[in-house]
Design a protein that fits this description.
The protein is mainly alpha-helical. The protein contains 2 helices and 2 strands. It has 2 domains: about 50 residues; about 55 residues. A two-stranded antiparallel sheet has the order 1-2.
Length: about 110
C-alpha cells in the first residue's frame, strides 16, 4: 500500500553543523518554485518570438497626405505661438510705459515732501 505524503513534509538543511536545521524547504515550496521557473521560461520564449516577429514586419510608410497634414499643423502652431509672443510683447510694452508713469509720479510725490 502506498504511503500518503504530508503536504507539510519538509526537509531541513544544516549549514553550520550545530545539529539544528538552518533552512527548511517543504514539498509545496519546491513545487511552487518549479511552477514559477517554468512560467518565467514560457514568458521569456514568448517575448523573444514576439520581438523576432516584430523585427521582420515592414516599416510603416508615411503617406504624402499624412505628411502634408502634419506640416500644416506644425506651421499653424508656429504662427499661433508667434501671435501669442507678439501679444505678450505689446502687453509688456504697455505695462512698461504705465510703470514709468507711476515711477515718475511717485518720484514727484516724494520730492514734494
Amino acid at each position: 500500500m502506498a504511503k500518503k505524503l504530508d503536504e507539510n513534509l519538509s526537509m531541513g538543511l544544516d549549514l553550520d553543523g550545530d545539529g539544528k536545521p538552518d533552512l527548511n524547504i517543504s514539498i509545496k515550496t519546491i513545487g511552487m518554485m518549479v511552477v514559477g521557473i517554468v512560467t518565467m521560461a514560457g514568458i521569456w520564449f514568448t517575448l523573444k518570438s514576439d520581438i523576432a516577429r516584430a523585427m521582420e514586419l515592414p516599416e510603416p510608410v508615411v503617406s504624402a497626405v499624412e505628411f502634408s497634414y502634419k506640416d500644416e499643423m506644425i506651421r499653424a502652431t508656429i504662427e499661433l505661438t508667434q501671435k501669442d509672443v507678439e501679444a505678450i510683447k505689446s502687453d509688456v510694452e504697455s505695462m512698461k510705459i504705465t510703470l514709468e508713469k507711476l515711477d515718475e509720479r511717485l518720484y514727484e510725490l516724494q520730492k514734494e515732501r
